[in-house]
């Protein structure tokens, strides 16, 4: 092992996902997750080869405790001397960051300013960076932004039809998220279709607990369904996606909801969970529909798939040609049912799937599941950690 591994950290408010990646080939030497942070149930799991080790975390059960535990594990298992940098997934880079950046005090101040655009995410990312700076004081740290890939969107795609001053004075615009995933899959799509590097026009559908669709031309994002926040666009696990904004006023003024209740309703109680009244989890809904003939689960999935197809079709307006569509994320990579339902609504775009290929392409496999005369319909397992590791290594080399 050379001294060239990157520790990739994805820090949430009560969890830290981490993996130790070789940036050259994406191989993963170690992965894990610290969960239930800030509670006495805080614990950490390390996954090495196929072995899993789980430990409780001691008081004060916080992010620093978790990172100290990671440092200990890296030292005990002789990884520590091979780690050359830390790459942090940071959700919101605003308009300031269209590229990954080496973290210094000035960057930390800017991230704190940007936290108002992503109050649910950036504060946790900042906590993670602070804790990692303490735990790995000697290592350079790089921020890789979920929003950066979408900074190529034209004004007509990123501006809302609101008073222009809200954009100029307060940065209210579409930013888009899942950028590292859309970036990775469009590059893989060019490779799979044997196009030149970065070339080709694609619409990628990242479908997981959070979902977003992106129109991409020659490696550049032209439009995407998430907006100022990750709440907009298609239906998600617990998020509503696009709704008539008038509903919010009706909930508050007509039905007496508080501002906090509406926030909770749209982010945590809507989407697949709200519609099905059963679960936010696609697999659970498919099981309920197929095994128990649960019609409300079917309805939730119908709406989920229809809205994805509508969004994909809308992006025909963003592109001049279309080489293919891409499915990725936990649902896009694994659910042949969702893929079939979505594609069924896209026959006007000449996208059709081969049923056998569709069913066979799951669980980490990549491939083109299109039928013979169709445009490409690609399934590509995403690899955001590898993108973060590669971009972190590039920033370190450039500095
Ligand atoms: P996150 O956005 O949290 O990273 P993931 O990308 O891991 O989410 O996707 C989680 C979703 O993928 C869940 O809804 C889960 O049910 C779904 N999923 C995973 N495997 C399957 C499968 N075999 N069939 C259907 N859905 C699946």
TrEMBL record:
Principal subcellular localisation of the protein: cytoplasm
Co-factor remark: Mg(2+). Can also accept Mn(2+).
EC number(s) on file: 2.7.2.1
Binding site for Mg(2+): 10, 384
Catalytic residues (positions): 146 (proton donor/acceptor)
Catalytic reaction(s) noted: acetate + ATP = acetyl phosphate + ADP
Subcellular location: Cytoplasm
Cofactor dependence: Mg(2+); Mn(2+)
Example of a GO MF term: kinase activity
Pathways involved: Metabolic intermediate biosynthesis; acetyl-CoA biosynthesis; acetyl-CoA from acetate: step 1/2
Keywords for the protein's UniProt record, in alphabetical order: ATP-binding, Cytoplasm, Kinase, Magnesium, Metal-binding, Nucleotide-binding, Transferase
Site-annotated residues for Transition state stabilizer: 178, 239
Binding sites annotated in the UniProt record for ATP: 17, 206-210, 281-283, 330-334
Binding site for substrate: 89
PROSITE patterns on file: ACETATE_KINASE_1, ACETATE_KINASE_2
InterPro entries tied to this protein: Ac/propionate_kinase, Aliphatic_acid_kin_short-chain, Aliphatic_acid_kinase_CS, ATPase_NBD
Pfam families on file: Acetate_kinase
Family, similarity comment: Belongs to the acetokinase family.
Annotated PANTHER family: ACETATE KINASE
Subunit structure: Homodimer.
NCBIfam families for this protein: ackA
Function description: Catalyzes the formation of acetyl phosphate from acetate and ATP. Can also catalyze the reverse reaction.
Protein name: Acetate kinase
């Amino acid at each position: 092992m050379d001294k060239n591994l990157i520790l990739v950290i994805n820090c949430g408010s009560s969890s830290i996902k981490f993996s130790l990646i070789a940036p050259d080939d994406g191989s993963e030497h170690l992965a894990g997750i610290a969960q239930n942070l800030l509670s006495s149930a805080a614990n950490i799991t390390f996954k090495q080869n196929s072995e899993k080790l789980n430990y409780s975390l001691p008081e004060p059960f916080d992010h620093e405790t978790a990172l100290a535990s990671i440092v200990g594990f890296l030292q005990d298992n002789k990884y520590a001397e091979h780690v050359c940098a830390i790459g942090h997934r940071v959700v919101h880079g605003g308009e300031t960051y269209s590229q990954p950046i080496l973290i210094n005090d000035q960057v930390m101040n800017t991230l704190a300013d940007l936290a108002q655009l992503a109050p649910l995410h950036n504060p946790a990312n900042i906590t993670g960076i602070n804790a990692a700076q303490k735990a790995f004081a000697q290592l350079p740290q790089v921020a890789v932004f979920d929003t950066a890939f979408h900074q190529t969107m034209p004004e007509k795609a990123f501006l809302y039809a609101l008073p222009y001053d809200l954009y100029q004075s307060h940065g209210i615009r579409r930013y888009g998220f899942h950028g590292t995933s859309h970036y990775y899959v469009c590059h893989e799509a060019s490779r799979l279709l044997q196009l030149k590097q970065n070339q080709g026009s694609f619409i990628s559908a990242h479908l997981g607990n959070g979902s977003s669709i992106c129109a991409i031309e020659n490696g550049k994002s032209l439009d995407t369904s998430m907006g100022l926040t990750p709440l907009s666009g298609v239906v998600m696990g617990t998020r509503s996606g696009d709704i008539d904004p008038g509903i919010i006023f009706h909930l508050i003024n007509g039905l007496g909801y508080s501002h906090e209740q509406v926030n909770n309703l749209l982010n945590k109680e809507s989407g697949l969970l709200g519609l099905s009244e059963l679960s936010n989890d696609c697999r659970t809904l498919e099981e309920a529909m197929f095994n128990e003939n649960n019609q409300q689960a079917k309805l939730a999935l119908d709406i989920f798939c229809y809205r994805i197809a509508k969004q994909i079709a809308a992006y025909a307006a963003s592109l001049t040609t279309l080489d293919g569509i891409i499915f990725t994320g936990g649902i896009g990579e694994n659910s042949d049912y969702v893929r079939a339902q979505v594609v069924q609504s896209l026959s006007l775009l000449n996208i059709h799937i081969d049923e056998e290929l569709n069913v066979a392409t799951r669980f980490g496999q990549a491939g083109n599941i299109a039928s013979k005369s169709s445009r490409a319909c690609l399934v590509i397992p995403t690899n955001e950690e590898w993108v973060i590791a590669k971009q972190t290594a590039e920033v370190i080399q450039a500095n």
